[in-house]
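This section describes the prediction task in plain terms. A model, or a person checking by hand, is given the sequence of a single protein chain and must write out its three-dimensional structure as a string of tokens. No templates, partner chains or ligands are provided. The sample shown here is typical of the held-out split.
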Amino acid sequence: MADGGTPPGGFTIRAFGVDVPVVRGPECPAQDFARVARTWEGCSPDPAREPRYAVPPLTYTGPLPDGSDAVAVDLSSEITRTVIDHADPAWVLFHAAGLAHPVTGVAAAFVAASGTGKSTLARTWGRTYRYLSDETVGIDPHGVVHGYARPLVMRVGEETGKRTLAPADHVRVGSGPAYLSAIVLLTRTTDGPAQPVLEGVPTLAAIMELVPQTSYLARIPRPLHRMAQLLESVGGAQRLSYRNVQSLGPVLTSLLGDPA
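The expected answer:
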């Protein structure tokens, strides 16, 4: 493990076993640094456990003169790249939203390319189910799903730019293990079915769709074999075709159980 250390006056986030310290830039207002630190509380390290890897500190320099939150948004992207770069190669990292039952921990990975609905699904139904991520989920060799509750990046009111928001203010962030029970390929279209359709996908076809949405597939030992094993463990991939995210309640209940 490379030890980047925890700097004084900063905070450390942990995702996928990787620790990323963040320090306050010399011109950064203390109040804004505290705000950004709070947006990362969902990734606070467990002090009782050692990280797998730690990197040198990143610096947050504060908002731009016009009040834009673009620096915090860029910091979020840099941290995401960093933790993915140093994650355990035995883990499968899907570009996916993650939800889990708030009590049982039964979890699903909703895999999709950027801009095709996974963030909307996670933020909408993450108030009912336990929110794991709207960006990336990690699955270890034991089928445990590791979430990534990074700050939500959203537009607020009439603002043209996006802001980073604390997940705890908008979704249900819990703790405890989550166990993979479904891998779902999302297909959201404006002319999709009014009532969502959930159907099985043949293994080879599913792998072909999952490969582009898997980070560092080549570093996973026997990657295609691992992918096939993962699909077999959940009874194969499923495709969820839908038009409106609000209509997904019955489908999510069938996948994860009744959250009530």
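For orientation: The chain has two domains: 11-86, 92-256.
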